[in-house]
Design goal:
5-stranded parallel beta sheet; 181 residues; 27% helix; 4 helices; globular; alpha/beta
C-alpha cells in the first residue's frame, strides 16, 4: 500500500480537506456534520475506519488527518497506531491530530490514556479531548478542529502548520513510573 502524502496534490483556492479516522464511527459522523456547517471556506470532509485510504486519484488533497480514539475501546487505539504507518513523515509537521473521546469515563484504564498521550508526544501531534455524549460536544470539537485545519491548509496568513507544535502534547520522561491523575 502507498503512503498518504500531504503534498501529492495541488491545493484548491479557499478549500480545506480533513480526513477523520475512527474505527467505531460513533463520533465521526456527528463531528463531520458539525464541521460542514462552516461557510467561510469550502470544506471537504472524508471519513475512514482506518488507513490505508483507497481511491488515491479521486480524493482531494488532505490537509489534516484526525485520529479519533475512543478510550473505552482498546481496538480504537490499536487501529490508530496501525494506521500511522500509512502516513508520510511530512504529515507529522502539523497535519496530524489525535482526538480522544470518553476520557471522563472512570472505567477506562489510566494506562490507555497514558498510551495516547505518549503516542501524541512521540509524533509531536496535537492532542484534543472531546465530549461525545452531548450535542454541544461535537460542535465544540468541530470549532477546535476547524481552527487547526485552517492553519494546516494554509488559510491563515503568515502562519504555517509548524506553529501548531505549540499545541503538542509533552510527556514527562518518567511517565512509566507515574500516572496522570
Amino acid at each position: 500500500m502507498s503512503l498518504l502524502k500531504p503534498f501529492s496534490k495541488l491545493p484548491a483556492l479557499n478549500t480545506a480537506s480533513i480526513l477523520l479516522v475512527e474505527r467505531e464511527e460513533e463520533f465521526q459522523q456527528r463531528l463531520a456534520d458539525a464541521l460542514v456547517t462552516e461557510t467561510a471556506v469550502t470544506l471537504n470532509v472524508r471519513l475512514a475506519k482506518s488507513l490505508p485510504f483507497e481511491h488515491k486519484h479521486s480524493r482531494p488533497r488532505i490537509d489534516l488527518v484526525v485520529f479519533i480514539i475512543n478510550l473505552t475501546s482498546e481496538l480504537s487505539l490499536q487501529s490508530a497506531e496501525a494506521s500511522l504507518k500509512y502516513l508520510d513523515p511530512a504529515y507529522f509537521l502539523g497535519k496530524v491530530s489525535f482526538m480522544v473521546t470518553n476520557a471522563r469515563n472512570a472505567a477506562i484504564p489510566t494506562e490507555r490514556l497514558d498510551s495516547v498521550r505518549k503516542l501524541a508526544a512521540l509524533h509531536r501531534c496535537t492532542l484534543l479531548f472531546a465530549e461525545d455524549q452531548t450535542a454541544d460536544g461535537a460542535t465544540s470539537a468541530a470549532e477546535r478542529l476547524l481552527s487547526i485545519l485552517k492553519v494546516a491548509a494554509g488559510l491563515v496568513p503568515m502562519t504555517t502548520a509548524l506553529y501548531l507544535s505549540h499545541l503538542t502534547c509533552s510527556v514527562p520522561s518518567d511517565i512509566d513510573e507515574m500516572g496522570f491523575d
